[in-house]
Every structure is written in C-alpha cells, then in structure tokens.
Specification:
This protein is an alpha/beta fold and about 250 residues long. It has a single domain, classed as Metallo-dependent phosphatases (Purple Acid Phosphatase, chain A, domain 2). Helix content is about 30%, strand content about 20%. The chain has eight helices and ten strands. A five-stranded mixed β-sheet has the order 3-2-1-9-10. Strands 4-5-6-8-7 form a five-stranded mixed β-sheet, with helices on one face. Helix 2 crosses helix 5, helix 3 packs across helix 4 and helix 7 runs antiparallel to helix 8. The chain is globular and about 55 Å long.
C-alpha cells in the first residue's frame, strides 16, 4: 500500500505545515503531493518552499504561484486590482530567497503520475494532479459542484484518481469510476474553521481510501509576522476566523 499525504493551497503558511508535520510525526508517507498555491498571503514563502523541497514533495503551480513568477520576471500584474491583495504578491516576491525562486520556476502546471502499488506483480495506479480542474486551472470544483460537471471531467480523464485544490474545499467523490479528491487548504480555510485541512490517500492494488484531517496550528505566529511585515490588518481577521473577507 502507498501512503500519500495530500496538500494544497498552503499560501506561505509555514506554521501550518509545521503543525501538519507534528500531527503526523508517527506516520510514514511514501509521497507528498502538493496541488499548488504554495505561496502568497502568509509571509513565509521561502520557509514553505524549503519545507516542500526538504520533504521531496511533488508540487505543481497554482494561480498565486504563477502571479509571483510574473513579478519575478519583471512583468506587470493585471489582477488582483484590490490593493490589499496586490501587496501580498509584491511582498511575497520580495521575500523569496534564490532557492525558493528556483523552486517556483521548476514547478509544472500539472502532472500525470503512474504509481506502482503492490509487492507481488505491482499494479499501476494513475493520478492526475491539477490545481483547478483537469480542463481549466482556474476552474473551481467545490463539494457541491453538480455531479454532471464531475461526470464530464471523468469522461475526458486519463487518470483514475484526480487530485485538485483551488477551491479550499475538502471532499472525495467517486463519479463515473473516477475518484475526485480535494484535500482542502493547508494554509487558509474559508469555512469559518481556522484549522487547516489536508488528506491522506492510501492506495493498494484494489482499493482507494481517503481520510481528511483538520489540524490546529499557531495562528498568532502568522498574525505577528503579518504585522512585522506591515501587511494589511484584514488578513489577521481572516486567519483568526477562517474566512475570506475580501
């Protein structure tokens, strides 16, 4: 059996990653898959990317990561226009160390993975890792997205398991023989519960098991760091309340 930690939408929240690591201290993971939006909002971009690198996480780009790359390339940002959001991107780009910048530039937009499962005559399991959806990286797939949409994506899928992020909404659906999994946000949930979210995917030759977790972390460390960087105070409320307020 493969034991896989699923993360997405960390948004630079290194204290949350540290809490997740501590929570699973007694568990071994064969892989860590990260569905993008690794940086922006919490002011720990280099620490976050260093953690992913040190743990050999397999990561793809999210929309916030791509915008930071544009800034690093000297290109303008058309969005976000909201000044409270915009400053979070410029601050992140300015904080990144060289290794972190290199990590972002090396990440692909999506990945199709072939995983060998089983000791005797390994079985190949196929996993697609996407930020939004397999059809569109900016598409939001929520738990209450109509099953008809999931069925459309299933019909076009090259993978039997599709892991996405972007919507910050944890779920596991089996639609038309395809598993759709979102681990939620490992850095910034919006459902009124400030604890972060992740999932564990357990793969065997004949089973797909998914377990979601909500984990408390040191929010005040994030809030102090936001203040130390003179970033908008509205984000302190967002982290404390677990809500998107702008």
């Amino acid at each position: 059996m493969l034991n896989i930690l699923l993360l997405s939408d960390i948004h630079g929240n290194f204290p949350a990653l540290a809490a997740i690591e501590q929570f699973f201290a007694d568990e071994h993971f064969d892989l860590i898959l990260n569905g993008g939006d690794s940086v922006v909002y919490a002011p720990f971009p280099s620490e976050t990317l260093r953690w992913l690198r040190q743990h050999q996480a397999i990561s793809i780009l999210g929309n916030t990561d791509k915008k930071v790359i544009r800034l690093l390339q000297g290109k303008p940002l058309n969005k976000p226009r909201n000044i409270d959001k915009r400053i979070m991107y410029t601050s992140t780009a300015g904080q990144l160390d060289e290794e972190g910048r290199n990590d972002l530039f090396a990440m692909p937009a999506y990945l199709d993975l072939q995983l060998a499962v089983g000791d005797s005559g390994p079985v190949g399991r196929t996993v697609g890792l996407h930020h939004g959806s397999p059809a569109e990286p900016h598409e939001f797939l929520f738990a209450d997205t109509p099953n008809e949409r999931f069925a459309e994506l299933a019909a076009a899928s090259r993978s039997e398991i599709i892991v996405t992020g972007h919507s910050h909404t944890p779920y596991h659906k089996l639609i038309a023989g395809i598993h759709f999994i979102n681990p939620g946000s490992a850095g910034r949930m919006f459902d009124g519960d400030p604890r972060v979210s992740c999932a564990v995917l357990r793969l065997s030759a004949d089973a797909v098991e998914v377990e979601h977790f909500r984990i408390a972390y040191d929010i005040e460390t994030v809030i102090r760091a936001l203040a130390g960087c003179r970033l908008p105070e509205i984000y302190a409320r967002m982290y404390r309340e677990g809500r998107k307020l702008n």
